[in-house]
Amino acid sequence: MKKRFLAGALTAAMIAGTLSPAAVSAADMTTLSLWIPTLATYTDEAVAEVETAINEYIGEKYNLQVNLEYVEIGNFEQAINLAMTTDEVDVTCYFTGDGQLSNYVANGQLLDITDYFANASEELKNTFTEEEIIASSMNDRMYGLVRKYQYGGHATAVLNKEIVEEMNIDAKSITTMDQLEEVLYQVHEKYPDIYTMVPQSTSEMTWSWTQIADKAIGLTNYAYADWGTTELKSLFETEGFAEFCKYTNKWYKDGLIMSDALSNTMEGSSMVTAGSAFCTLHNGDVDPLDELYPNTVETGVLAPARAIATDIGNLQYGISANSAHPEEAFTLLGAMYTDPEFATLLAYGIEGKHYVLNDKGRAEYPEGMTAETEPYGGFAATATYADFLILPVKETALYEDAKATVEEWDAEVEVTPTFGFFYDTTDKTDFVTAYANLEDKYEDAIMTGSVALDDVLPQIKSELESIGFYDVLADTQAALDEYLANK
Questions:
Q1: What is the C-alpha separation between 304 and 135, in angstroms, rounded?
Q2: Nearest to 173 by CA among 156, 187, 185
Q3: How far apart are CA 348 and CA 350, in angstroms?
Q4: Same CATH topology for 1-151+308-420 and 153-307?
Q5: How far apart are CA 34 and CA 55, in angstroms?
Q6: Cα–Cα distance between 274 and 261 in angstroms, integer?
Q7: What is the pTM of this model?
């Protein structure tokens, strides 16, 4: 839900006739709207307090004011699509996991910031690697700044800690789907009244796509390849998808996966934490998942750290093409990546109230406060902010230097050979929509195991043929082959 605390405060002060000199000064500044998706609870009071603190800081330093607009992550994409048709939003987060960057650019929603970035400070320009700049660009034009974060991830799972300890399960020794399956059946036999396996999020069985296939090739939503190859296929015809779904279909038929998975509305990690489920698949990185999710234990790595094309820059910040203040918006955007004090206020809140620095200089909750009671999101909710590398290191982190750790992680991640390839689907909007509808129709049902892939694959192929899928795929393959030949 949108919040405009500063505007309300100024209006009230003017009505009361008590507008202070500082408030008048603030009213003369450029006020920008910053939209951020939420991963946790942000109370109105906490957001108002942080917004006030931020405005005191950026007003003096940048002659700017900001309205913080927090929207629940599940509704965020729809909300910004609507907001960017007006001047309601200036700087916003956006996701590129399914090739949305190309959609935003094609729809004229994002401002071309190429020239702004070329004239920016060396500090800002040196913040980003060549790969990160490519990830936020199309046709050699730049449209945003990627989140500074470890990219890619390995496939893993989180298990209920109480059950793991009671059954003496060695979670870290689980490094294959067969080993995971063996444990799942043991737990199902002993605890038949809880869900043995639940989707990672709502009806999505997993976000760890690199365990299954290489997707979003060319920033499309229809082109996939089995990992390590560049032969394009539909999702349903990749070997990785078929292999993964054989497991889930078996588990579903044997009662291990919740029978109502397709109508699930909860996060898998929340159910595992609460003890209503034993296991959910997950995507891991430098932050241990069992530190993020109470009462859980993380397994070993089920699939190595890999990055599909949209993993590098899968979350970006850009400027709405309808912003009335593009220059000021770029100043705010740049500050999110180069100003640690501003970035820390934005991500952690107010020191002493929402977080404290301990004697090691690490950030942790104030005494008596937890992730559940911290009113400004909590440390587990900071993944959607622009640059965690310039924030104080969290007490729970297993590293001393975030920047060095992330750079080391990124150097070890296997990056898809199709990275940097872009296929323009501007003239194929009807096809793209038709394919997306087809995936929506079948994907979750097959991945949760409630439908066997072999039972519906002939029908899927027929529907793919009817929308011209194989013709478009052949064109995409030819363009990819040419790109790789000249790379």
A1: 22
A2: 156
A3: 7
A4: yes
A5: 12
A6: 17
A7: 0.75
Determine the residue type at 234.
S
Residue 415, classed as helix, strand or coil, is: strand
Rounded (to 5) percent helix, strand, coil in the chain: 45, 15, 35
pLDDT tens column, 414-457: 999 998 898 988 899 899 999 999 999 999 999 999 999 999 99
Question: Which residue, chain included where needed, has tokens 């729970």?
Answer: 396
Q: Assign 102 a pLDDT band (cuts: 50, 70, 90).
A: confident
Q: Which amino acid is at 290?
A: D
Q: Quote the tokens at residue 324.
A: 């009335």
Residue 18 predicted with pLDDT over 70: no
Q: What is the mean pLDDT of residues 467-480?
A: 98
The sheet that has 30-38: what strands, in order across it?
Answer: 64-72, 30-38, 91-95, 315-319, 145-146
How far is the C-alpha of 194 from the C-alpha of 280, rounded, in Å? 13
d(CA 10, CA 52): 12
Residue 276, exposed/middle/buried by CB under 10 A (0-12, 13-18, 19+)?
A: middle
Please identify, in words, the CATH class of the domain defined by 1-151+308-420: alpha beta
Map residue 178 onto helix, strand or coil: helix
Sign of the CA dihedral with 169 first, then 170, 176, and 179 last = negative
228 Cβ contact partners less than 8 Å away, ≥ 6 residues apart = none
Count of alpha carbons within 13 Å of 181, Cβ hemisphere only? 13
Q: Are 314 and 150 in contact (CB under 8 A)?
A: no
- For the domain made up of 153-307, the CATH class stated in words is alpha beta
Domain residue spans of the chain? 1-151+308-420, 153-307
DSSP 427: G
Of 371, 334, 272, nearest in space to 125 by CA: 334
> For tokens 């929509």, what's the residue?
433
Distance CA 115, CA 117 (A): 5
> What tokens were used for 436?
């997306």
Task: Write the burial class of residue 317 (CB in 10 Å: 0-12 exposed, 13-18 middle, 19+ buried).
Answer: buried
Q: Output the CA angle 387-392-393, nearest 5 degrees.
A: 95
CA torsion sign, 94 to 99 to 104 to 110? positive
Which residue type, as a one-letter code, is found at position 333? L
Residue with tokens 């998808």: 241
Question: How many whole angstroms separate alpha carbon 119 and alpha carbon 465?
Answer: 48
Structural Rg of the chain based on CA atoms = 23
Query: Measured on CA atoms in the order 66, 67, 73, 79, is the torsion positive or negative?
Result: negative
